[in-house]
């Protein structure tokens, strides 16, 4: 039996999404080949050793989902044992960090796996850090010649010492509406769309609550299409899917609480655009040094202009999420996708030893 250590929860603002993703993954594992040790990372950063699954969970309670999602002290029935992180190590075991956002998707935990010499699913330190940081991503995409919307990076210290300079820079370079985002975050947490200077001020205050680095982007009116990537040095891409929009943009509640997102897979897009998007996605994955999986998010304007928005190295991974559905459309089932990701993680580990 192969041992998978499924790590979920985490300290970031995206921890709930991680719990949902982990539950889907746990249900879809092939228990004739693997057993799954679950490890939950609490909001405080404690590592809690959970159940060892040798069969799929029958219900959400088995993963202590309510515990994981609620404020932790609301769930006194949880009986996990707090461990030291390095106790997850077992020879031949592979870690599957189903974690989104900072301290999970940003290279920190990947560095820990490297240090204890443990194989793991997904991108390494460099790609995780590059992909999580929207400013770094944009700099690298610029080098790779991949089109993107104009942007202004802002550091907290610059903003504190001379806000007027920052306002003038943003308004001189970009035209309202603007999008203000913490550099290191996902699931739309801390993001605002702003129409004037007053709103821009508020948006900075919010974004700087999450990160000391903020990016201001040109807002555009565009369709949103996404491409799935799977592979290491050799990487495959999916046909695009589309996020069909009703709202101006999907915030966290719309994405996850109200389930308002509608997807069209495959997206109805001209074939030249499809070719271009797949090519840009691949080039971005390579320049960021991606491995395992990623989801590339694009904007497509009415005039057929294509801009790469970002590369998510650990995209939402529930059975109803875009990334697995993109692969399902290519003929790869959710369970087989998980198997392939584990194999890719093991291969990457072998190459690096
Ligand atoms: P996730 O990782 O969940 O995809 P995120 O927090 O990394 O989200 P983005 O994908 O950059 O954030 O932005 C969230 C959403 O906001 C986009 O899907 C899009 O709807 C809207 N949006 C972001 N930037 C722009 C922009 N420059 N112009 C127009 N809409 C934008
Ligand atoms: Mg993102
Ligand atoms: Mg994300
Ligand atoms: Mg996105």
Gyration radius over CA: 20 Å
Structural class: alpha+beta
Which percent range describes the beta-strand content? 15-25%
Kindly report the spatial arrangement of strands forming the biggest sheet. Answer: 4-3-2-1-5-6
Topology, number of strands = 16
Give the end-to-end Cα distance, rounded to a whole number of Å: 22 Å
- Overall spatial form: globular
Bound chemical compounds? adenosine-5'-triphosphate, magnesium ion
Annotated CATH topology of the largest domain: D-amino Acid Aminotransferase, Chain A, domain 1
Q: Can you tell me the number of structural domains? A: 3
- What's the SSE pattern? EHEEHEEHEHHEHHEEHEEEEHEHEEHH
**Low-pLDDT residue intervals, each spanning 5 or more residues:** 73-77
Helical fraction: 25-40%
SS element count, helices: 12
CATH second-level architecture of the largest domain: 2-Layer Sandwich
Mean pLDDT: 91
What distinguishing features does this structure have?
single chain, 353 residues, alpha+beta, Rossmann fold, D-amino Acid Aminotransferase, Chain A, domain 1, Dna Ligase, domain 1, six-stranded antiparallel sheet, binds magnesium ion
Structural description of this entry:
The protein is 36% helix and 24% strand. By secondary structure, the chain is α+β, with helices and mostly antiparallel strands. It folds into 3 domains: 2-120, Rossmann fold (3-Layer(aba) Sandwich), CATH 3.40.50; 131-147 and 221-345, D-amino Acid Aminotransferase, Chain A, domain 1, CATH 3.30.470; 151-218, Dna Ligase, domain 1. The strands form 3 sheets. Strands 4-3-2-1-5-6 form a 6-stranded mixed sheet, with helices on both faces. Strand 15 and strand 16 (306-312) form a beta hairpin. Helix 4 (125-132) crosses helix 5 (134-144). The longest helix is centred in the last third of the chain and has 19 residues, at 334-352. The chain is globular. The structure holds adenosine-5'-triphosphate (ATP) and magnesium ion (MG) (3 copies). One magnesium ion (MG) is lined by residues 100, 186-187, 312.
């Amino acid at each position: 039996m192969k041992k998978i250590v499924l790590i979920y929860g985490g300290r970031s603002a995206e921890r709930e999404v991680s719990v949902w993703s982990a539950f889907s993954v746990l249900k879809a594992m092939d228990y004739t080949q693997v057993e799954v040790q679950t490890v939950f990372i609490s909001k405080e950063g404690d590592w809690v050793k959970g159940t060892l699954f040798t069969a799929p969970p029958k219900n959400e309670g088995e993963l202590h989902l309510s515990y994981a999602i609620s404020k932790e002290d609301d769930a006194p029935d949880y009986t996990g044992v707090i461990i030291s992180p390095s106790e997850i190590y077992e020879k031949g075991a592979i870690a599957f960090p189903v974690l989104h956002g900072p301290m999970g998707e940003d290279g920190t935990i990947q560095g820990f796996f490297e240090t204890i010499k443990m194989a793991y699913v997904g991108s390494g330190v460099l790609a995780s850090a590059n992909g999580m940081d929207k400013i770094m991503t944009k700099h690298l995409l610029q080098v790779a010649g991949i089109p993107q919307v104009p942007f202004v990076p802002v550091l907290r210290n610059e903003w504190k010492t001379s806000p007027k300079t920052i306002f003038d820079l943003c308004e001189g370079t970009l035209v309202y509406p603007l999008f203000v985002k913490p550099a290191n975050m996902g699931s739309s947490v801390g993001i605002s769309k702003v129409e004037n200077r007053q709103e821009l001020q508020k948006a900075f205050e919010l974004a700087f609550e999450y990160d000391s680095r903020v990016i201001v982007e040109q807002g555009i009116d565009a369709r949103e299409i996404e491409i799935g990537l799977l592979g290491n040095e050799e990487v495959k891409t999916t046909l695009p899917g589309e996020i069909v929009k009703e709202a101006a943009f999907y915030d966290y509640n719309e994405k996850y609480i109200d389930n308002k997102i509608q997807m069209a897979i495959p997206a109805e897009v001209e074939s030249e655009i499809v070719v271009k998007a797949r090519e840009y996605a691949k080039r971005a994955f390579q320049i960021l040094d991606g491995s395992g999986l990623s989801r590339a998010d694009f904007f497509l304007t009415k005039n057929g202009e294509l801009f790469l928005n970002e590369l998510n190295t650990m995209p939402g991974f529930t059975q109803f999420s875009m990334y697995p559905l993109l692969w399902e459309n290519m003929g790869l089932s959710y369970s087989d996708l998980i198997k392939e990701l584990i194999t890719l993680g093991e291969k990457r580990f072998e190459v690096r030893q």
